[in-house]
Write a structure and sequence with these properties.
This protein has about 220 residues and is α/β, with parallel strands linked by helices. The protein has a domain of about 150 residues: Vaccinia Virus protein VP39 (Rossmann fold), CATH 3.40.50. A seven-stranded mixed sheet has the order 5-4-3-6-7-8-9. The protein has a two-stranded antiparallel ribbon with strand order 1-2. The protein is globular and about 45 Å long. The two termini are about 30 Å apart. Bound molecules: S-adenosyl-L-homocysteine (SAH). S-adenosyl-L-homocysteine binds next to strand 2, helix 4 and strand 4.
Length: about 220
């Protein structure tokens, strides 16, 4: 099997370093987040015809009308999730990702979390992610085929919940699966969306609205 992680030219470590430099120029300040993104080869998560564009700061198609997220937006979400937890070695703790897609963000999360549970509703994408992630051998990552709008009760509570799909209203069951002191980040909205950070504190939940974004919709059920 050809190990695409060893690819040269447009897919080299240097090309990836240029992507990281661009993220820094565009305002990402958290070096731990940037290091996690430098550690994951994004080109192995896109089809070969798109490999040469893998380190551009854009979302790309992955089939089934879905996309691999834009690196800048992933970096922004991770920066918010790590804030206040800077002293922890695995700052995201137990993490749930909703919407595995091709598996790229799951691999980045695995650098920053103790344990990552990632759930995808489209079986063919869950299989694709499994295949893409195999060569990275991430022992703290578990993939599930299912409907993430129900969370993952068997693995709850989570210190971090991150969604790669947008919804007009965050499913309340997810808040129940968030640990005390935990943080959840969600693209909220329909045509117009913004990132919403939800923190669970002993005094209740705190919501903070962040950047406007454009994500694929969260859908119920599996296929
Ligand atoms: N995490 C990916 C982005 C995937 S796009 C990355 O690393 O770039 C968002 C994904 O969410 C799509 O694959 C879509 O099928 C999935 N999705 C949408 N609704 C879902 C749900 N209810 N449960 C699980 N996955 C869902």
């Amino acid at each position: 099997m050809r190990l695409r992680a060893d690819g040269k030219g447009m897919t080299s470590t240097r090309t990836r370093a240029r992507m990281i430099e661009r993220l820094r120029e565009n305002g990402i300040r958290d070096e731990v987040v940037l290091a996690a993104m430098q550690a994951v080869p994004r080109h192995i998560f896109v089809e070969e015809a798109l490999e040469s564009r893998a380190y551009e700061d854009i979302a790309l198609p992955i089939g089934f009308s879905q996309t691999i997220s834009q690196p800048f937006v992933i970096a922004r979400m991770l920066e918010e999730l790590r804030r206040g937890r800077e002293m922890q070695e695995k700052p995201l703790g137990r993490t749930l990702e909703i919407g595995t897609g091709c598996g790229y963000q799951a691999a980045v999360l695995a650098q920053l979390a103790q344990e990552v549970y990632s759930i995808e509703r489209i079986a063919a994408l869950a299989d694709l992610a499994r295949k893409n992630l195999r060569e990275l051998r991430l022992s703290n990552l578990r993939l599930t085929h299912g409907d993430g709008s129900e969370g993952l009760a068997g693995a709850a509570p989570f210190d971090t919940i991150i969604s790669a799909a947008a919804t007009p209203r965050i499913p309340p069951v997810l808040l129940q699966q968030l640990a005390m002191g935990g943080k959840m980040i969600f693209p909220v909205g329909d045509e117009e969306q913004a990132l919403c950070l939800v923190e669970r504190t002993p005094r209740g939940t705190r919501e903070t609205w962040l950047d406007p974004v454009r994500f694929v919709p969260l859908r119920a059920g599996v296929e």
